[in-house]
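Give me the fold.
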Amino acid sequence: MASNPTRTFVTGEVAPHRPRIARETRRLLMTAALAVLTLWVLARIRFPDRPVTPNPVTPLLSQLTGVPRFSDLATAIDDVRGRLAPSLMALVPVGTGGGGSAARRTDRVPALRIRDDLAVAVLDPRFRGGEADPLGVIAEDRASGLALIRVEKQSRSALPTVWMPQRLEKPRYAIASSPSADDVSLRPAFIGSLTPVTTPRWIGPVWALPRDVDVAAGAFLFTDDAELVGVVAPYEDGLAVVPGSLLLIAAGDLLRQPQKVPADLGVDVQPLTPRLSIASGAEKGIVVTWVDPRSAAASVLKAGDVIQAVDGTDMSTPDDWHVRMARLGAGEKITLHVMRRGTERELHLAAAGPDLKTPASALGLTMRPVPRVGAEVVRVDRGSAAEAAGIRAGDVITAIADRSVPTTGQVQSSFASAQQGDLVIVSIRRGTEHRVMALQR
């Protein structure tokens, strides 16, 4: 009998075919990947300013959104203004002679609250000097113009976050404060670059601004996130930004320091030129150009002296001298190291306090002649007719009454010859502007 063979079937999943990659191939692929990664890292280190290859998805998505408009910029600035409103203020300073409402609107000073009852501002020197002080200044550094001002207490004010600088040389937009008729407005300001520089007016480095930046001294700068960049202050013959962190440190130091009664030595200086260096025998310093004969320095200094140091601090530029004199207090004693005709001298001088108030009927001007122009004002006495009219040191009197290009003596005689209570018309040049004022006899 023949038996049928039995067939056995095994059911189950069939394992997929997986081609094996040779070990040499895997090593080659890993080496290539590491090489690409290494080249990318080296390129980012060697060329950090080159942009990374853009994501192609972003341009496609941007086509679905609208083109930015000026109204969008205005909306962004309005948002920043709302966030800064509790901190920004516009203060009315001491009048500059006109006293009208227009002058008060254009001369408003932007200020920033740093405390519920305290604000900080950088003041123009022309806003100071009067006995009355509508600003409520409680402390001031006359060298930098930094002032602390007592303001009405406000519990909801908050100090803005200070901006942390990155790549100062990079062009950027900032939002600048600008005083308006009733408040502080904000506007965009393009800044091509910020250059770190040092100045004796501030305790740390500041950032010099390019010449074409459209901002004014005293303006506060912010980012579009309402961060405090700093405040704009004079620097040499231009402007610089005092960083927000440095501004707050200086304000704290000023608040802790006792205030001094200001003193004036009545000394003008100029840079030491190579020709004057040979003539005087001095290799460094600043040259005395004029000494007020009424000042305490008249018996010590002479025109042509080269001041090399004050209390051991080198005087390299006129700015060094102006800063030291601005911080000089009445009764303070200083030591001058002076070169006079090739001989070094050590001179001691005590700064006198401010003069007594000059009668309002007195002209109150100290002047020096400017050939073919008129008389330059060197000093204006407090309480005098000149101060009441708004004349400042640095103004050049080009005409008075019926005299053009007057000498210093003709200015004095023209005012003295007027009747008591009469007004004398005087024309002045202030910087690049020409103005007319009235002196009351």
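The CA atoms of residues 53 and 248 lie 41 Å apart.
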